[in-house]
Amino acid sequence: MTDTVLVLAWLVFAHLVADFVLQNDWIALNKGTGGRTGRAALGLHGFHVALCLVPAVLAFGLPGLLYLVIVAGTHMAVDTWKVSVTRRSERLAIETARERAATGAPGPSSGLGRAWTPWPGMLFLADQLLHLTIAIVAWLVILQGAALLDGFVDVVNRILRDWDRAAVHATILTAIVLISLFLVNTRGAYYFVMAMASRREIPDAEPAPAAPGPVPTGVAYKVWATVSGLERLLIVAFLLAGVQVAAALLVLAEVIVRFRQFEDRGFAEWFLLATFASVAVAVSSGLVAAAVLGTLGG
After folding, report:
1. How many whole angstroms separate alpha carbon 142 and alpha carbon 67?
2. Of 30, 174, 180, 218, which one is least surrounded by beta carbons within 10 A?
3. Dist. CA 40–CA 27, nearest whole Å
4. Phi-psi region of 78 (alpha: psi -120 to 50; beta: other; left: phi over 0)
């Protein structure tokens, strides 16, 4: 069972590296724009996805190559869809906000901005789930029943020699899970919270209401995001250690510290949404990681 879990953990890790380590801001901003620049950015991202899956080709040969082509190709297709739908939802949110402003109808609170919409955050989640689902289904169909290449097995045997294979697998799986947790709760969660809870105003609207003082923007937002990343890592550490009460107390302490600021309704709505999104990533990833690491005891 450990071998299967190790392969699946590695496939998830390969996705995380391609999406949150190798993908830079230029790729993220341009891959769905179309034209020469957009195609170049999308192609480079697809190359990164394929590069992370090269070990599958080395291990399985032609089935691994087929897996690489399918996953990399569908990854680019899903990204193109996600960028297109996200931009469409944001345009609709801006148009709706402009109509509200013109008629004087009430809109979202000042903490979230007049053009805020939950769709960018929800589509970010959908994008990630689609990538992972395709990767796992393709593994089930293409690689699960495929035999490892004799040459690959010989190389692994020469490297490991007399080492305890179970101990090696446990060490590698633990390392993959821990690094994946770090990527999810720093880079991945940062983009998810930013997509879900960033303040959104109507472009070029006059007069635009000022953001409430307690709601972080600019550099202050990056500082808050960094602190939140550390908080998520602490929550994950508590969950893996089996100290769930400590994780709950950590979140409660943050709420208590900010309690007086809840008098500002805009800040309260922004804080609750951002905190819920942040904690949800930490708790869900921590529980999945605990379940994966739990297979080592079997």
Report:
1. 7
2. 218
3. 9
4. alpha
